[in-house]
Amino acid sequence: MRVQKGYQKNICRRFLSGMAFLFLFFLMGTGISHAEGRWEQEGQSWYYYSSDNKESYTGWVQSSTDGRWYFCLNSKMQTGWVSWNGKWYFLNSDGAMAEKQYVGNFYLGEDGAALISAETPDQRKTSENGSLLRKGKPMQELNEKTAKYISVLMEHPDAKAFFDSPNQLSLEEGNGYPFVIFKKMSLYDRKSGELLYAGDAAFHKNAVIEYNNGSEKKMISVMDLMMIRGVAGERVFIDPAGYITYVAGGVE
């Protein structure tokens, strides 16, 4: 039986499309959802629920309209850097996963993950934490003592934080990339209240902190922490090198 060329092309396209999805499924790991759930806007945030009874969901969601990928933590759509299955991804302000581009000192590959110990398309090399190399050393790197909170936040991404102010701040240069060391940050388990970490915190020089003093909500810088008694944050966001980029839900 003779098969028309148009039909052959259609079958080929479907096969390749299916293989592409399976490849992404393998890259993302478990936690992929599609049209069986639903999105709901609550305040200024978007939430994805996998069932009618608003069952909490953590993982990736692919848009049925444009094919873009979104990540939810306890159903809430995330933005900024997220860690998943040992890889780092960056989510744009609209929640969509970024790919094939630089974000700061990191490059995101075709699957959206930051390149680790690899070479970028423009022949620049990345370090073990994903940061670009400069003169053979990572542009962003924390010492072992300070870096301890990275694993804590990767294991407890929704940990609550307290920044004990006024406190000592010091501007560090690293490998030509400035950042601010703050003493001290405490991280607590959201459910049990257990203390998970107490020690230094490394902030991007231009990091932003949500701050609500009871009468107004505003965005402040890490330097502004010196003028406040203390700030409790609902969540701390870090990049792959562990530098704090954003603190959400900060209250005095």
Q: How many alpha or pi helices?
A: 2
Shape: globular
The assembly state of the depicted protein chains is single chain
Q: Taking Cα atoms only, what radius of gyration do you get, to the nearest Å? A: 21 Å
Q: What do you see in this structure?
A:
13% of the residues lie in helices and 40% in strands. With 252 residues, the chain is mainly beta. It folds into two domains: 37-137, Ribbon (left handed beta-beta-3-solenoid), CATH 2.10.270; 147-250, no CATH class. Strands 13, 14, 15, 16, 17, 18 and 19 form a seven-stranded mixed β-sheet that branches. A four-stranded mixed β-sheet has the order 1-4-5-6, with no helix packed on it. The protein is globular.
How do the helices and strands line up, and which of them pair or pack?
Elements (H helix, E strand, L loop, with lengths): L4 H24 L3 E2 L4 E5 L2 E5 L9 E4 L6 E5 L2 E2 L2 E5 L2 E5 L9 E3 L2 E3 L24 E2 L2 E2 L9 H8 L4 E13 L6 E10 L6 E18 L4 E5 L8 E4 L1 E4 L5 E5 L4
Parallel strand pairs: 1-4, 15-19
Antiparallel strand pairs: 2-3, 4-5, 5-6, 7-8, 9-10, 11-12, 13-14, 13-17, 14-15, 15-16, 18-19
Protein name: Cell wall binding repeat-containing protein
Keywords: Repeat
Pfam families: Choline_bind_2 (PF19085)
